[in-house]
Amino acid sequence: MRIGIGYDVHQLVDNRTLIVGGVTIPYEKGLLGHSDADVLLHAIMDAILGALGEGDIGKHFPDTEGQYKGASSLSLLKAVYSMMAEADYEIGNLDAVMIAQAPKMSPYIGLMKSKIAAVLHCDESCINLKATTTEHLGFEGRGEGIAAQAVVLLQNCAL
Ligand SMILES: Nc1ccn([C@@H]2O[C@H](COP(=O)(O)O)[C@@H](O)[C@H]2O)c(=O)n1
Ligand SMILES: C[C@@]1(CO)OP(=O)(O)OP(=O)(O)OC[C@H]1O
Question: Could you tell me if the CB of 77 is within 6 A of ligand 2?
Answer without folding.
Answer: no
